[in-house]
Structures are given as C-alpha cells and as structure tokens.
C-alpha cells in the first residue's frame, strides 16, 4: 500500500515536509521506513559479516544472584541460591544457570560494571552515554552509529534493527534514538508497527512499478522545493523501501515460524505474558532466534529485551521467586544462541552482550526483594573473536562495590566498536553544531584490553 499526503507539515524539529511518498506503511514514531534506511550502494556479504546482538535485561538483573554469588556473606546478603562450578576453573555461577556453566569458556563475565546513572531506561545500554548533558541533537544509539559509519550490508535489510517490545514503561521499550546521526539511521523496530506491512497488500508488481516511476518524476520537484538533508536523501531511502517490499527478505528473517522446529525447541518457547508484574516485558525466547536470522540476512546490529528484572519483592514475588523463573529461561535461550552461532560458523564474527541498566542491592529488603543499585552491576560477553573464559573485576565480600578492575559501560561499547572494525580513537560523527564527537570518551575509556 502506498499513499501520498497532499499538504505539507512541520515536525517539532522544524524540518519541512512538503510532499512525500510513504511505502508499505512501515513507520517508527511517525517516520516512514525509507527515512530509517541507509543511502549507500549494496555491498557483497552474508551471514559471516561482523555484527552485534545486544540483549537488554529490562529492569536491572541481580549480579549477586547470577555471576557474583557470595556464599560466605551473611544470609541477608547472600540470598537463597548456591554457586556451581563451571567448565572454567574458579569461575562459579548460579545453580539456575547450568547450561551456561558448561559454556563459560565461551563467555566473559564482567563482575564490576560501573557508570550507571541509576535510571530505569534502556538508554544507557543502547547509547553508552548518560542521558544528561547530551550534545546538540542527542547521542545516537549504538545501532545508529553503525548505520551511519558502515551502512547496510544489503539494500533489503536495515543496518540496525531493534526487537524491543511495546510495553507500558516507554523508557524500557525505547528502540534507541538516532540522535545527531540523523533520522535516516534510526533502528528499524518491527515490534513497534508489526510486520504485516512487509507484504504488498492489494497491489501487484505493475502498480508498484507505476509508483516507482512516479517517484522518479517527483525527484526534481522535491529537490527544488526543499534541499535539506532529510528531503535530499529521500529518493535513495524510498528505493530501498521498494527493495525491501519486493524481495521479502526482511519479512522472511522476522518470521520465526520458518525456523526448524527442533531449533526452536532448543531455544525454548518462553512466554508472551507480562514478565514479573505489570504490563512490562516478557520472556520471548524466540527473539534470540529472530536476532540470529536477522544477522544472517544482513543486519549489523540487533537489540532485544528479555523479561522484567525489577524485583523489589512482595506482592509481586520475591527476588528469588522471579529469578527461579527468569534465570532458566535466559540460560536456555542464550546458550542455544551461542551454540547456533558456533554451528553456523558465525561465532567469531558476531559479538553478543547481555546486561541491564544497573545491579541490585546487596542487602535483601524486608519484602524479599533487591532494590536498585547503580554502584555495580554485571555483564556477559561472547563471540566476536574475544578472549573469553575469564572473569574481569571483583567486588567486596558483599558485592557492594568493585575492589578490582571496575569496567565502565563505555569500555564495553569501545570493545564492541573495535570488534566491528572501528577505530574509536579517531572516528567521529559531527553533532548538529558541526562539532565532531568521538564514539566514546576515548580520553578516559578504551576497548577492554583483556578481551581484544
């Protein structure tokens, strides 16, 4: 389906939009799909290109109940779970992560993640920067940076795709903002619009080609009316949208029903029910499969969220009640993804990061929950050619703060950029004032030397 609005309008950013063609009804925040796509030539590639899968554990996972257990701490700190040995000597994990324990040689554990603003939001995990004191235009998210600097691998799959679900708490469902990279680099968010518009409803190819010809005739007029970057680049984005619609490649990648049933069982089915409480999040194990399928199809960055980890206690169940539900589901989905990447020859090219916006309080509250704890959290990294099978950092006896090797969010982002072949010490993107901005604060932070 195609439509051409007849009159102009002005968005809150002051950008004029006089007449534009919307293809397929695909939109993110009111912007058509072509505005989300790169304007670069198709390049050869396949499933083994460098890429990143980022798993956001919505709400803040309990580090001391997952990968930094303190069995010698007082009961009100150590909690209800026991550590088990992994296949890496000296690296113990929670008893509810048995599959992960058998693959710790393929994971790197960060026990001292610092730098959290303490906000209940996906922003810091997607952007790597704090919300406060942003440059003009705002920080672009990781996927938008990659879209800006590397472009799409092919014309049919956006460079950055966000599988964040639509949930009641908007900061958690944020797919990532393009910031000063520009709206054409915003992540494509299929869960924000559904995928039903990825097919040509009620239109055959001859009609679509008529619209393509109309687009060609509108090019000169559009450039005459308005020459700002957003409009000047429209032609290429529209053409890419036509490519997406006519190829069906993106729709196929998103369709998990086409996956081998045996593979789906290995990942687990998870649940679409609200995870924990409220209308926020769910444990959709199949999003891990979709992420892998999108990478194979040509995406460079895929983000997803999993569950709700904000466990303050009754009446919504204790921290430990919820962990007994969430941890096995994450254990199954994540390890299935790692095995899948290895089996398909993708392990060294696909970097995987799993984290949340902060950790949880070492002291268990009176409701059996753990509250917000920005002082220290945890992260898991795998693949990407990194040196895995190790723990980075150590906390004190009650998991309250780092006593060895604190790791900042930006160091992990620097590592991911490095894995994609980007030089964080030299590359910049101009903000809206024309001032060049580094991808991370390189004066303070660098890619983790322990991993790269």
TrEMBL record:
Pfam families documented for this protein: DUF1501 (PF07394)
Top-level taxonomy: Bacteria, Pseudomonadati, Planctomycetota, Planctomycetia, Planctomycetales
Protein's recorded name: DUF1501 domain-containing protein
